[in-house]
Design goal:
The protein has 217 residues and is an alpha/beta fold. The protein has a single domain, classed as Rossmann fold, CATH 3.40.50. It is built from nine helices and eight strands. The strands form two sheets. The protein has a five-stranded parallel sheet, sandwiched between helices. Strands 3-4-5 form a three-stranded antiparallel sheet, with helices on one face. Strand 3 and strand 4 form a beta hairpin. The protein is globular and about 50 Å long.
Length: 217
């Protein structure tokens, strides 16, 4: 059973998808973390973000592991490092790299084999797993998503500015929607859930109802 949760940055996909997987007893696949790992590796190795071939070659060499609540890159826990504004500002070039996207999608398909999975990202229901029996598009207003991202960074001890987060988020939304491959859009058979004004527990309850309704008996 594969449950896909797609949606824009800051919609709360990762946190609620993780809780959903725990409630269902499923594995959790955080695809955004994979692209962030590639971005972080490029920044650390000072690979120019416009060098598409070098980035693609690096992406195929990296050892990215998703271990429960943590993300590991080449043996290092980078769960916090991949969430910094610097990585967020730089991820566009990585996400637009067609070779990187192809490598990540293949890695995602390998990862889910033999598992019941909740997977979240931008193109899970449209590109990575078009035949998934349960597809959800999770969204919220730009202002609400910026507030959530700000709080997430502050809770992690990272200084951040609301206006800058909102600006970067709006730019990223536009770029994600215009992307020729893996663009941000709901699958034709996805259920859209707008979380404005909802607490995470309320969102979780709604998603549980949707998944259980779509789960084959």
């Amino acid at each position: 059973m594969i449950v896909t949760i797609d949606g824009p940055a800051g919609a709360g996909k990762s946190s609620v998808a993780k809780r959903l997987s725990q409630e269902l007893g499923y594995c959790f696949l955080d695809t955004g973390a994979m692209y962030r790992c590639v971005t972080l590796a490029c920044l650390r190795r000072k690979i120019p973000l416009d060098d598409t071939h070098a980035i693609a070659a690096l992406a195929m060499e990296l050892q990215i592991e998703l271990r429960n609540d943590s993300v590991w890159l080449d043996g290092e826990d980078v769960s916090v490092a991949i969430r910094t504004p610097e990585v967020t500002r730089s991820i566009k070039s990585i996400a637009d790299n067609l070779q990187v996207r192809a490598a990540m999608v293949q890695a995602q398909r390998r990862w889910v084999q033999g598992k019941d999975v909740v997977t979240e990202g931008r193109d899970q229901g449209t590109v990575a797993f078009p035949d998934a029996p349960c597809k959800i598009f999770l969204t919220a207003s730009a202002e609400e998503r910026a507030r959530r991202r700000l709080q997430q960074l502050l809770d992690a001890g990272i200084d951040a500015d609301y206006d800058e987060i909102l600006r970067l988020q709006q730019e990223r939304d536009e770029n994600d929607m215009k992307r020729p491959t893996g663009g941000l859009r709901p699958a034709s058979n996805a259920i859209t859930v707008n979380t404005d004004g909802m607490q995470e527990n309320e969102v979780l309850d709604k998603l549980l109802h949707i998944v259980r309704d779509r789960t084959p008996r």
